[in-house]
Structures are given as structure tokens and as C-alpha cells.
Write a structure and sequence with these properties.
By secondary structure, the chain is mostly helical. The protein has helices at 3-23, 28-60, 65-90, 94-128.
């Protein structure tokens, strides 16, 4: 699916949401979730291809497969949590959106803790000589 179709689907979903918000406000968020799900499914295959390519590039650079996997998982956590938070913001749930964003940040940092420990050990080794 090319970007023009995705953009059109996004605009169409926004228009449906605006229409339903006035007519049936209880159904309007479901229209947003449905449109977003269709968009995510349409780019899902390319998303995984991108991650595979990025993992290969990181392994060529000497970062290592395990560290590349951690970085890619952290990016995935950020993307998913930001997506969920944006839907919450759109539905006037800013407190929930902020909590989702915070949970995503904490999850990514927790996931990256082994890498941070390795960096700290290397730094201490360089400082101590």
C-alpha cells in the first residue's frame, strides 16, 4: 500500500470520526481504532522488513545481534506507546495518554538496562585504567 492510499485512509477515518462524534459519540472512538488498525496492518509487513534490515546493519557495524534486538524492541515500545497515547489524546483522555507514554518510556529503559550496565562497565574500565 503506498503512502497516498494510507493518507487518504487517514483523512477518511478522521472525517468519519468527526461525523460520528456529533451523531453517535459512543461509537466514534471505535471508528478511529478501526481506521488505525487497517493502516497498521497495511504497513505491518514493511515494518518487520525494516526491522530485519536495521538488525543486519547493526550486526555489520559490530553492535551485535543481542544489542540490536534490544534497540529495535525499544523502538517498537516507543512506537506502540505513542500510538496508543495519541488515540487517548484524541478522545480527551490526557491523563491516560500521559500514563501510557510514561509506561512506554519506563518499559524501554527497563529493556535497555543490560546495555546501560555494559556501557557503565566499559566507562569504569576506561576511568580506572
Amino acid at each position: 500500500m503506498d503512502i497516498a492510499k494510507i493518507a487518504f485512509l487517514g483523512i477518511l477515518t478522521a472525517l468519519i470520526y468527526a461525523f460520528l462524534r456529533n451523531m453517535r459519540p459512543e461509537i466514534a472512538p471505535l471508528a478511529v481504532l478501526g481506521g488505525a488498525a487497517v493502516i497498521l496492518i497495511s504497513v505491518g509487513g514493511r515494518f518487520f522488513e525494516m526491522f530485519d534490515g536495521a538488525g543486519d546493519m547493526m550486526s555489520f557495524s559490530g553492535i551485535g545481534k543481542e544489542n540490536a534486538a534490544i534497540l529495535l524492541k525499544a523502538v517498537g515500545i516507543f512506537v506502540i506507546s505513542q500510538f496508543a497515547a495519541d488515540i487517548c489524546y484524541d478522545n480527551s483522555c490526557s491523563a491516560i495518554a500521559a500514563a501510557v507514554e510514561l509506561a512506554g518510556r519506563i518499559g524501554a529503559v527497563y529493556l535497555a538496562m543490560p546495555m546501560l550496565e555494559t556501557v557503565a562497565r566499559i566507562a569504569m574500565g576506561l576511568i580506572n585504567g
